[in-house]
Specification:
transferase, Glutathione S-transferase Yfyf (Class Pi), Chain A, domain 2, alpha+beta, 2 domains
Length: 357
């Protein structure tokens, strides 16, 4: 396990018997405790776990709704791995059994042929009884899940697949900043990425109050840190920025109201709002974000928190494309590299679901 890995799995990215559409996410009287069980097999250059890096062999199954899956989609695009790792997208909602491929013709993933992601998990283990989560890296030759360890997946895309990175791909894990990236990502995961869930799924007032204070203490720290630096670590984007971005981009749309993280909106925090816009407008970030699917997932699937299932019409998304002014802080998103090219046909976000042109 890499030091950059959080070593935990997302409940929002999972479907399991006790957690799903119509299920229970907030346990009365309890604080939210993250499920830490996952399949930690790795795809590596040396094939140490029996799964060597091999172009065309693996399929990344993600969902645009899920922040943990969104990370993998961003990193795959930034590194230019579209031609070597295919992408399958589940729909924004799921029931207690599994994520489904209802966005695809006939409701089946066109490569794997599955209607539900759980079929890939059962190919790996017919008795599999844990969370059916995204992202999942699937061996397309067998249809079986290799790993759903979301934190390690993105680290391995950067380190194990280097031979297949595009020319000009950014180094998201530069060795000279390794310790600082590890420290920042651990803090961001514990206090922010997971912090919003600790608020939203709190089962008691005291659990919520503690989670709320921890979250806002961390967001205040990040606001201060980003006042005079363009990126979290160094002068270009790193894994740390990817991990923070996927929470920030969902903050006003779902976490502020749905998860009761409502001291301020992101738009009311000048440094964080400008930082988030800077990343959103950077190729590889905002062009992977589908706000409509994000809202549908949280407001429909978490039926114990939002029993009516009503999906809010707002917020207004036009601010995401306004000037951010972060260029004055120096740095460059891709360092000495270059931005990724246009989004591939078939992987583009519905134009009605994003403010990007």
């Amino acid at each position: 396990m890499s030091d950059v890995s959080e070593g935990a799995r997302s409940t929002t990215g999972s479907a399991r018997p006790e957690h799903g559409q119509g299920g229970v996410y907030a346990v009365p009287g309890k604080e939210y405790v993250r499920d830490t069980r996952y399949i930690d097999t790795r795809v590596t250059a040396d094939g140490r776990d029996g799964f060597p890096v091999e172009p065309g062999r693996y399929r990344l199954i993600a969902a645009r709704a899920c922040p943990w899956a969104n990370r993998a989609v961003i990193v795959r695009r930034l590194l230019g791995l579209e031609d070597v790792i295919s992408l399958g997208l589940a729909g924004p909602t799921h029931d207690s059994r599994s994520w489904t491929f209802d966005l695809d013709p006939g409701g089946r993933d066109p490569v794997l042929g599955f209607e539900r992601l759980r079929e890939a998990y059962f190919r790996r283990d017919p008795n599999y009884s844990r969370g059916i989560t995204v992202p999942a890296l699937v061996d397309a030759t067998t249809g079986a899940v290799v790993t759903n360890d979301f934190a390690q997946i993105t680290v391995d895309l950067s380190t194990q697949w280097r031979e297949y990175h595009r020319a000009g791909a950014p180094d998201l894990l530069p060795a000279e900043h390794g310790d600082e990236i590890a420290e920042i990502t651990r803090y961001v995961f514990t206090e922010v990425n997971n912090g919003v869930y600790r608020c939203g799924f709190a089962g008691s007032q005291s659990a919520y109050d503690e989670a709320y204070q921890r979250l806002w203490s961390a967001l205040d720290w990040l606001e201060d840190r980003l006042r005079d630096r363009r990126y979290l670590v160094g002068d270009s984007i790193t894994e740390a920025d990817v991990r923070l971005f996927t929470t920030l981009v969902r903050f006003d749309a779902v976490y502020h109201g749905h998860f009761k993280c409502n001291r301020h909106k992101l738009t009311e925090m000048p440094a964080l709002w400008a930082y988030a816009r800077d990343l959103f407008q950077t190729p590889g970030f905002g062009d992977t974000v589908d706000f409509e699917q994000i809202k549908q997932h949280y407001y429909i699937v978490h039926s114990d928190i939002n029993p009516t299932g009503i999906v809010p019409a707002g917020p207004d998304l036009s601010g995401w494309t306004t000037p951010h002014g972060r260029e004055s802080l120096g740095g460059s998103p891709f360092g000495n590299g270059t931005p990724p090219g246009p989004v591939r046909q078939g992987e583009r976000v519905d134009p009605a679901h994003t403010p990007l042109p």
